[in-house]
Every structure is written in C-alpha cells, then in structure tokens.
Amino acid sequence: MKIIKSTENQETASKVPTLQKEQPKEVSASRERSFMTSPKLNTSPLHGLWALTHRDLRKWYMNPVQLFVSLIQPVVWLGLFGKAMNFGAFVSGAGGTQTQQNAIMLSMFGTTSYFSFLACGMLAFVILFTAAFSGMSVVFDRRFGFLNKVLSTPVSRGTVVMAKVLQSVGRALTQAAIVLLIAVILGMDTSHFTVMGIFGTFSIMFLMALGLSSLYVMLALRSTDWQTQMAIINLLNLPLVFASNALFPTKLMPTWLQYIVKVNPVSYANDAARQLLLGAIGLNSLAIDFGYLLAFGILLSATGIVLSWRLLSK
Fold first, then answer.
1. Alpha carbon distance 170, 175 (integer Å)
2. Sequence-distant contacts of 305-313: CB under 8 A, at least 24 apart
3. How does residue 165 score in pLDDT terms, banded at 50, 70 and 90?
4. Is the pLDDT of residue 206 over 70?
5. Residue 81 carries which DSSP code?
6. Helix boundaries (H) for the chain
7. In whole angstroms, what is the distance from residue 90 CA to residue 236 CA?
8. pLDDT at residue 35 in the model
9. Helices 98-109 and 114-132: crossing angle, nearest 10°?
10. Global confidence as pTM
11. Apex CA 215: angle with CA 209 and CA 216, to 5°?
C-alpha cells in the first residue's frame, strides 16, 4: 500500500510542474495577442477638432501673463483716450446747457456718453487684434514640426483650419467679456443692459471673430516666416480699425471714407453692439447687421476649409 501511494504522489507531483509550465505559456500568448491588436482610433471629426482646439487654448489659459498683456492696450484706450476725449465737456465749455449737450451728443454719437460709445468699439477692437494672431499659430506649428505630425494623422485638413479658427474665437470672446466688465467699472452706461442684449452682442461678435480668424488663418496656410505674417497683420488691422465706426461716428468722416466704412465688417459689429447695449439709433437695422456678419463668417470659414484642401501641406 505504501508503494502504491508513493507512486501516486510521484505522478501528481510530476503533473504539477507541467501545469505550472503550461499556464505561463497561455498567459504569454494572450499578452502577445493583446499587444499585437492595434487600438481603435477615434477618427471622428469632432474628436480631432476638440483635441486641436483645446491644445491651443490650453497654451493660452496656462499662461496668464499673455492674457494680461493682451488686455493692456484696450484698457489704455478706454482709460486714457475714452476719458480724455470728453466731447460733452467741449459743448459745456462753449456755454451750452446740459440739455443742449445731451441733444448734441445724442445726434452725433447716439448716446450722451462718448466713453460708452468707445467701449462698444473696443469690443470689436479686441476681437480684431486677437483674430489677427490666429494665423501666427499656423506659422509656428509649421516651423516647429507639429503641423507635419498633424497632417500625418487621419484628421482632415479642414478640421485643422477650423481648430485654429475656433481657438481664436474662444480667446477673442473671453477677452471681449473682460474688457466689457472693465468698461462698466470705469463708468460705461448700463441703463440699457439686458440679458438678451448682452447675448445678442456676443453672438454678433462671434460671427465677426469667426470671419476674421478664418481670413488670417487663410493668409498663413502657406507661410513659413512669422515676420511676413506680422507685416500682413499690421497692413490690415489699422485700416480695419480706423476705416470703421469704432472710434468716431461715420457722419464725421469724409464721403469717400464713408463708403469704405459701409463694407467694413467691424462697422456692422459696432453698430449692432451700440444698439443692443446702449439703445442707440443704428446706421442699419439689427437684422441687416446680423445678416451681413452671418454671411461674412460663413463665407470666409467655408473658403478657409476649401483652401486648406489645396494649400495646407507638409
């Protein structure tokens, strides 16, 4: 009996190592199969659009110094130029009464406060200059090699362009909201503020930012030199500001300049913002302002996507 039991123990002992040897082989085989199986890529256009947009936005909001510096210029315009150019004081200094002062200001600016008139213009001012630098992101991504990596992925070229546009739009609207808050603190007239008025203003600003950002991204699709892009920004930005009603009403301008103001999208954004925030009488109806900027934004963004198919390459 002892001999039989010993033989049985030897047989079971001999089976245990074989089981222990076979188990690692199965585990290693399953690991190899899982390793060789390629992960499923999310090729959704919305996923790629969000990833690229968030990448650029993250570089911006993780650097608060950049946000602070970008707000200095419009705040200087508001605090210095807006307060210094007190046209109502000119009327009262000439002997006019307060009633006459208000009547002249209303007929000229649509509001009794030039500072409030300028504050609405500064919203478009901020959006214009923020949108102008949307193309710089394309130039630097090309120079540092990131653009080549993106173009090697399944993400479409139109998605790359729209990501650059949307990150610029997000930055522009955020900075415009901060400038509006600063203007209110400095004395902007808020008697006509409503929730729908503020919402409508930023809807108009969104359309302007969409069109202008698309324009500057298009101009940077084949650019490899940031100096060339800066020259283009300086060439376009100042005419777009001064050939608009951002600083002064159209009626004070010469006739030939008024024709340029009437086709400038910045003028339509300013006109709508003053109607919605100040209750001013506009040059156009809100429907015309909204329709013009809607067409402007859709046309330029669609053109940017089409041009990206031909011009955006490694």
1. 9
2. 305/158, 305/161, 305/162, 307/218, 307/221, 308/157, 308/158, 308/160, 308/161, 308/221, 309/157, 309/158, 311/221, 311/222, 312/151, 312/157, 312/160, 312/161, 312/221, 313/151
3. very high
4. yes
5. I
6. 2-36, 45-61, 64-76, 83-84, 87-93, 98-109, 114-132, 134-143, 146-151, 157-186, 195-219, 226-242, 255-261, 265-278, 286-311
7. 33
8. 47
9. 30
10. 0.81
11. 90
Q: What is the mean pLDDT of the chain?
A: 81
Rg of the Cα atoms in the chain: 31
d(CA 268, CA 91): 29
Residues 6+ apart with CB under 8 A from 293: 204, 207, 208, 211, 265, 268, 269, 272
DSSP characters over 155-222: --HHHHHHHHHHHHHHHHHHHHHHHHHHHHHHT---TT--HHHHHHHHHHHHHHHHHHHHHHHHHTSS
Residue 118 is which amino acid? L
For residue 10, the tally of other CB atoms under 10 A from its CB is: 10
Residue 41: predicted pLDDT: 52
* Cα atoms found within 13 Å of the Cα of residue 237, Cβ hemisphere only: 18
Structure tokens at 132: 């102008």
For 187, left (φ over 0), alpha (ψ -120 to 50), or beta? Answer: left
Buried b (16+ CB within 10 A) or exposed e, 267-277: bbbbbbbbbbb
Q: Is pLDDT above 60 for 25? A: no
Question: Roughly what angle, to the nearest 10 degrees, separates helices 195-219 and 226-242?
Answer: 140
